[in-house]
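Continuing the series of single-chain predictions for the mutant panel. This is the parent chain; the variants come on the following pages.
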Amino acid sequence: MEDKNKLEIIEKLDNNLIILEEKKYSLDPHFGFVTKRAQACPKYYFADRFGNRLSKNYYSIEELDELHYLVTDFDFMYSLGLDEYISQYNNEISELDISKFKFHYGIVTVIDNKILEVVPTVYNRIEKSNNNVIIVYCDKRKGLFKNVLKTIDSKLGAINLDINSSQYGMNIIPTICDRIVDFDLEYTGYAKVKVGNVEGYLSKDIDFDKYNEFLRIYSNFTNGLTDYKTYLYGLENAVSKILYTTDEIKKKTLKLN
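Parent structure:
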């Protein structure tokens, strides 16, 4: 029987791995035959040089550096599923809110012929910063505060992508920031951050005493939804525990010297 799915080598990597494109053919709507003219969206995955699969399917794969690849998923974002969502609109697919169809980005690492998803494919955008740090984005969304839906603006976070760091792959800060300036612009290893009315400097190297205090406060006020004003106050209070002032950075620098 003819294989209705076609595999094609898209790229050969330096480490004897390959990226394969999987094309899924579909039925001709007029005559009912399997056709190559109307293909479903192709998917891509990593394989060894013999074609053995090493990763799940991705919507796209893009090289970032010799170890890392930016990968995307294309998801339907509705917790009850597509069928239930369509039924809310009398099965009229044309009335679907296109914003429910979202790209999500992550990063995989290729080491010793193994594929590690070091940044999960959940972010709406990913950009490289300095000092082997990436900035991750979360789009505008709605949050429920005392049974009132509130639109929350797009937020940013930061992740350590330094393969030589003991904190490799860790969230330096989750996607709660209103603004993150690139690392190393003012002080090496730091980025200027703003959350609500709080501003300060975020360190690439996590101080776990400060981070645990941030988590303690953050988990307490987010354990049960509250009004937005209280939420923002608690968020600012939590973030203030992990940010540094200019004086603190200068003191740390003097101690190192």
